[in-house]
Design goal:
With about 325 residues, this protein is of the alpha/beta class. It folds into three domains: about 60 residues, NAD(P)-binding Rossmann-like Domain (Rossmann fold, 3-Layer(aba) Sandwich), CATH 3.40.50; about 120 residues, Cobalt-precorrin-4 Transmethylase, domain 1, CATH 3.40.1010; about 120 residues, 2-Layer Sandwich (Methyltransferase, Cobalt-precorrin-4 Transmethylase, Domain 2), CATH 3.30.950. About 25% of the residues lie in helices and about 20% in strands. It has a five-stranded parallel beta sheet with strand order 7-6-8-5-9, sandwiched between helices. A five-stranded mixed beta sheet has the order 10-11-14-12-13, sandwiched between helices. Helix 4 packs across helix 5. It is globular. It starts with 10 loop residues before the first strand and ends in a 9-residue tail after the last strand.
Length: about 325
């Protein structure tokens, strides 16, 4: 969505949202708008955005109460099909960074501008899709926690099929494609199918979230390194193969991604393995987005404080002395 009208700091009512609502909302948020969506039957995408505090959903609204009213003009035409030699098709994995459109790399933005097909996740900076060609096919395959879910095998197949049809395909993700982004699986699927594939790195939330609230993941005389682990499943789950004892004794900053639900169990396990209960800790949700929020505490109470503050996914937890290393 491009417009000459400045919406920075203005209240915007988005009326009749369509298929491209996520990227239109992200574009408005990037421009500094406060967005309300008028929708009587919100889909999973809208409910997800509302649950993260990025938009307000209403079923009735008086347009006179808003600075700007936008009627969403979604793509309604079928994607333009252009004949192409299959060997010209390719897949580019683009890491979009933590969510703010400004943290997408120039190379990533250029790939989006050149793409015939863009397959995107919910945590990618979707406002950047306004830079896509009007005839580009945009496919949302977001995996909403405990909600709508596109199987990874289906995503792999989609990338391969579009590329073999001669399309320049961009797989647009949040963060970095290879940091818990399953980009490696997509890479291997392309190679196995004989599809050219490359990756454009993105800024991982494992470092960005901490930095955005003034926490360095490393700091001279405090720690000489950091470790990034998945908290998708709790330490006691048989699927979790993290060596928590090694982490507890590492003297390194511990960064936990996808660990909101399991945070109390993770903290309990680290303490049981010998990490001091008074170790500083912080939890940051929606890093770089207008709804960014954070809470600080200790390893002993970070789970409780995060819950009390309404911290929800996507969130990053930082554990270590670096949490209090910088002056505030």
């Amino acid at each position: 969505m491009s417009t000459a009208l400045s919406v920075g700091g203005r209240s915007v009512l988005l009326h009749s949202p369509g298929a491209g609502v996520a990227e239109r909302i992200h574009a408005l948020l990037t421009d500094g708008a406060r967005v309300t969506v008028l929708e009587t039957d919100p889909d999973a995408t809208l409910r997800d955005l509302a649950s993260r505090g990025l938009v307000e959903l209403v079923t009735q609204a008086d347009p006179m109460l808003y600075d700007v009213v936008v009627r969403d003009q979604s793509r309604t035409a079928e994607p333009v099909v252009v004949a192409a030699d299959p060997v010209d098709g390719s897949v580019t994995l683009v890491g979009g960074g933590p969510g703010d459109e400004g943290l997408l790399t120039i190379a990533g933005l250029q790939a989006i501008r050149n793409a015939d097909v863009i397959v995107c996740d919910r945590l990618a900076p979707l406002g950047a899709l306004r830079e896509a060609r009007p005839d580009a096919e945009v496919v949302h395959v977001g995996k909403i926690p405990r909600g709508e879910f596109t199987p990874q095998a289906a995503i792999n197949e989609m990338l391969v099929e579009r590329a073999k049809a001669g399309k320049r395909v961009v797989r647009f993700k949040g963060g970095d494609s290879f940091v818990f982004g399953r980009g490696g699986e997509e890479w291997n699927a392309c190679v196995a199918a004989g599809v050219p594939v490359r990756s454009i790195p993105g800024i991982s939330s494992s470092i960005a979230a901490a930095e955005l609230v003034g926490i360095p993941v490393t700091h001279r005389a405090v720690t000489q390194g950091f470790i990034v682990v998945s908290g998708h499943v709790a330490p006691g789950d048989e699927r979790n193969d993290v060596d928590w004892a090694a982490l507890a004794s590492s003297r390194l900053t511990i960064v936990v991604l996808m660990g909101v639900a399991a945070l109390p169990q993770i903290a309990e396990r680290l303490i049981a393995e010998g990490l001091c209960a008074q170790t500083p800790a912080a939890c940051i949700a929606d890093a770089s987005m207008p709804s960014q929020r954070s809470v600080c505490g200790t390893l002993a109470d970070i789970g409780q404080k995060a819950s009390a503050a309404g911290i929800s996914a996507p969130a990053v937890t930082i554990i270590g002395k670096v949490v209090t290393a910088l002056a505030r």
